[in-house]
Every structure is written in C-alpha cells, then in structure tokens.
Design a protein that fits this description.
alpha/beta, Rossmann fold, Alpha-Beta Plaits, 6-stranded parallel beta sheet, 5 helices, globular
C-alpha cells in the first residue's frame, strides 16, 4: 500500500514507522523543516516540505496513486481541508483524520472522511493505563486487509512489567510493530522487557 501522512508528530511518526516495517510505502508532508529533518535522519528521504492543504503539494506527494491519506495535524482546520482536497483529487482514496477538539466532531461525520481518531481518546488511554493494569486501544482499522493496529500500554503496577513481548498474552496471530518507552524512544528489539508506561504497538487480524 501507499500511505501519505500529513503532519509530523509523535503519533504520526509511530504510525509511519509501523507501516514501513510492514513493507508499505510512506510519504510524510509537513511545512516545518525541523520535522522533515527528523524523518530524514531516522526513516530516510520520505518527506515533502509543504502544506497538505495545497493541491500542488499533494500532487507532488503522489496523491493520485495513494491508497490512504492520514491527516495528523494538531489543527482540525488543516486536517479538514487536507482531507477534502485529497478526496477531490483521488475519489478512491481512504482518508483518516485526527480529531483534536471534540467540538469539531460533527464536522468530520460525513462522507468525506472514512475514519476519525479522537486525540482525547488516545490521551485518555494513556491516563487509563497509568492507573490500571494495562489498556488495549485500537488506533487504526484497515478494512481492506482486515487488520487493526492497536496500542497496549502498561500501567504503573501492571503484571506485564518485566516480561518480554513473547511472554505477554496478545490476541491470536498478532504481529508486534514496535515498543515505545515512556520517554518516547522506539525499539524493535522485542526481547527487551516491558517497563512501566511502555506501549506496545501491534497489528492484529479482524474477522472478515
């Protein structure tokens, strides 16, 4: 699959790295050189400097051939316009948007958007994991390939602390993508033991 991600931040970075690990082609779009440099240094030449609500930038990124467009800006207006233009250029593309403010939820509940991720729910999941054993949250559903990407977060007193990924009970046929430490470091060494507030990103098949 070819996936375009607009807006570079910790969430979109983790998603993009996971998609690349699975063998997908990914391009990031961001207006800030600093963010583009971060992607270049860690993942390679996979970013385009520009605004994702600019038609020329989207065409440069290859929106015509993309399978998915993920609008991950921390600004709902940018995400709204970016998704609408992406759909206008490529009517077959699946668009996914990050919702930053609940007051804008109704705006995204129309046919221009295929899937919405609520930032507050992601934050709530982090808070929940802090005070509970562990939490398991879906952050992306690929209906074409019948898979989900989920985040399992270890609470401060979780029973999965001190275990390696192979010792943790994950759903059947899960494929671990990455482990993210509480400080934000991303690891693909799955023999490492889980620490408090670590997050495990994994892919799991769903029923057809």
């Amino acid at each position: 699959m070819y996936i375009i991600i607009a807006g570079i931040n910790n969430l979109s970075y983790q998603l993009g790295e996971g998609f690349i690990t699975q063998g997908n082609e990914v391009t990031f779009i961001d207006p800030k050189q600093f963010n583009a440099d971060r992607i270049e240094k860690s993942l390679g030449f996979l970013s385009i400097l520009g605004n994702s609500y600019n038609k020329k930038t989207l065409l440069e990124a290859g929106i015509n051939r993309a399978d998915y467009f993920i609008a991950a800006h921390q600004n709902d207006e940018n995400n709204l316009v970016s998704c609408q233009i992406a759909k206008f250029i490529n009517s077959d593309i699946k668009v996914i948007t990050l919702l930053n403010s609940k007051k804008n939820r109704e705006i995204f509940l129309n046919d221009d958007f295929d899937y919405m991720v609520d930032y507050d729910e992601i934050l709530g999941n982090s808070i929940n994991s802090y005070i509970s054993d562990y939490s398991n949250m879906n952050i992306f559903t690929d209906n074409d390939n019948y898979t989900e990407i989920r985040i399992m977060s270890a609470g401060t007193d979780s029973r999965i602390i001190g275990k390696s990924v192979s010792e943790i009970e994950l759903p059947n046929n899960s494929k671990v993508i990455a482990i993210i430490s509480s400080s934000g470091n991303i690891s693909h060494n799955f023999s490492n033991t889980i620490n408090s507030l670590d997050k495990i990103i994994f892919q799991v098949p769903i029923n057809k």
